[in-house]
Amino acid sequence: MATSISELHQAHAYMLKTGLFQQPFAASRLMTAAASSSIDSLSYAHTIFTQTPQPNTYMYNTLIRGYATSPTPNVALFLFLKLLCDDQDLLPDKYTYTFVLKACASLCRVKHGKQIHGCVIKNGLSWDVYICNTLLHMYAKCGCFEAARHMLDRMPNRDVVSWNAVLSVYVEMGLVDLAFDFFSEMPVKNLESWNFMLSGYANSGLLDEARRVFDEMSVKDVVSWNALITGYANSGRYNEVLELFDDMQRARVKPDNHTLVTLLSACAGIGALEQGKWVHAYMDRNGIEANGFLATALVDMYSKCGCIEKAVEVFDSASRKDVSTWNAMITGFSVHGFGEQALKVFSEMVENGFKPNDVTFVSLLSACSRAGLLFESHEIFDNMFSIYGIKPKIEHYGCLVDLLGRFGLLKEAEELVEKMPQKDVLIIWESLLSACRNHGNVELAEHIAGKLLELNPQDNAGYVQLSNIHASKGRWSDVVDIRRKMREKLVSKKPGGSVIEVNGVVHEFLAGEGMI
DNA sequence: ACGTTGACCT
User: Fold this and answer.
1) Which residue intervals correspond to the PPR repeats (predicted)?
2) How far: A71 CA to B3 C1' (Å)?
3) Is residue A441 assigned to a domain?
């Protein structure tokens, strides 16, 4: 089996030279290899398809399946139409329908799905449980739960997958209550059914319910453990994540890459360096390579735990990086205050042919902001859209406003905020307001605080900052006035907190709390 | 020769 595009090219060239390519079976094999290899070679498979004089249904199926699970499932629909119209002597078979229906589901195109359902009935394929299950999933995915239910109730040969196909959509949409009603009603359940229900609760942050389902399960696999652990991790309950991982090991369930990624992000979240190192050592012991997701998670963990050197080490030795891996490294340098290094990694990233995304630019701009790289930040902000086609979002404006504010370029910052899309500008005004405070610019501060309170009278930052500015200028009566307004609206400041790891134990303390 | 339902990183 070919694993790289160059191997595919070699095979293709050989087949053209020997005339093997003219044989439909051989051509199909090559195309299948291209469409299903892990590398992004779907377009290459499409090229082979186009060059084949008389593609058969199998080749159509292979390509439709490839596109159905790609980011552009509409091409699968197009190919299905081409099969119906262009090739009169070819007909879709039962496989074609499962693939094209999958495309309808991911596109939420219920109209097309219904038409294809009609074809299925016309061609006498209504008995096929695979097709019916895909239809069920399609109707549910498009929000047509009544249609799905109607079909499910009338299906003579429904099985556990039929029920799961609908349940999975309830869960995916976060409709946990409906999911649970449906789940309770299911006459047959398998491990997947339980895992769906469990991850439904876990993803909605309903950890007690998730836990209850988990404890009720007679059989659990690594997916079950991962679902629960991920739920705790997403709720920021990192200490419990580490406890659950201990339980998992005691239950002798072997962690997989997903487990380790979640574990590392938990370590990163609480700065648990020792546990993070343990995960890294575990990977080494078990021959698990630090690539892709795991490399990203390790880089992130080491840099959040303060070990930028270790982060660099992992990054440099990762043979397979993706955009997120690069982003994690840039963020790492950024938060450690190494602005120039962050920019250097960015140019390497581009040189290596990676396409930066909006996260990349948040990291870059905040690197500039922290390191005070004013000139560079303007250049990056401008290139972001003109070269890379990424529209600046609130975060990007925020970084720039922050930087301008730090340099005391308050007028410029204000002009930038005025140019922003109106939605969500509150936080940016807050950032600028604190810059005004640092530079003692009372006039602009009052102007901004006024805007802020007008936009959101509940906003505590506006009150707090404005009162601080008055306080710094000795305007005590204004301070008292604002504090009284705050009490009236019951606005209060949430206490700040921090975490630190000492000897492998993570401690949390709140601002104003004693150390001992 | 092909098919239905699964959780993870910035």
Assistant:
1) 128-162, 190-220, 221-255, 322-356, 357-392
2) 20
3) yes
